[in-house]
Write a structure and sequence with these properties.
single chain; 195 residues; Rossmann fold; 22% strand; globular; Pept_tRNA_hydro_CS; cytoplasm; tRNA-binding; hydrolase
């Protein structure tokens, strides 16, 4: 594949028990991207559900989307496996993940930087040997009161949040398509613009 191909990976934990968790918002965004493209994710030997498709306005940009089959803190193996299989470098890899440091309902884009205690990102950085991949950070807010962050991310969205969740997933999917279509800097100007 050409180096114009992008890899988009949505993080989460496998199985129905975790499907609605805040920690699974990255996987939810990839499922939405597949739905938008009329594609179905299929099991891939890299240890992920994945599909090759075109994202964005016609004719679209060649993109591989995937969700690791492993638990969150082992996300690096499948992500690196897909990147290697499709010959996609880290800097053309987009990782979608939940972000405690961003208010619920907001999406932020960045390349590189720290992992902020996120074990999925830590695993990907270790597997790639670099932090130089794009992150689509989906805001889930901080836990209320003294709730432990690890417990909070493994809880389902509240009923109030669930009403807003489709809009958040749409915004995150739009952000991914913008990065793929226009590049990170132009996408940041749109996504980070005040509303």
């Amino acid at each position: 594949m050409s180096d114009e191909t992008w890899l988009v990976v949505g993080l989460g934990n496998p199985g129905p028990k975790y499907a609605g968790n805040r920690h699974n918002v990255g996987a939810m965004v990839v499922e939405l991207l597949a739905q938008r493209a009329g594609a179905r994710l299929r099991a891939h030997k890299a240890g992920a559900s994945a599909e090759s498709l075109r994202l964005g306005p016609m004719p679209g940009t060649r993109t591989v989307i995937g969700i690791p089959h492993s638990y969150m803190n082992l996300s690096g193996g499948a992500t690196k496996g897909l990147a290697t299989f499709f010959s996609i470098p880290p800097e053309r890899t987009i990782v979608i993940h939940d972000e405690l440091d961003i208010p619920f309902g907001q999406v932020r884009l960045k390349q590189g930087g720290g992992e902020g205690g996120h074990n999925g990102l830590r695993s990907i950085t270790a597997s790639f040997g670099t932090k130089d991949y794009v992150r689509v950070r989906v805001g889930i807010d901080r836990p209320p009161g003294r709730m432990d962050a690890a417990a909070y991310v493994l809880k389902d969205f509240s009923s109030a949040e669930r009403k807003e969740l489709p809009f958040l997933l749409d915004d995150a999917a739009d952000a991914v398509e913008l990065v793929v279509e226009k590049g990170l800097t132009d996408a940041q100007q749109v996504v980070h613009a005040p509303r």
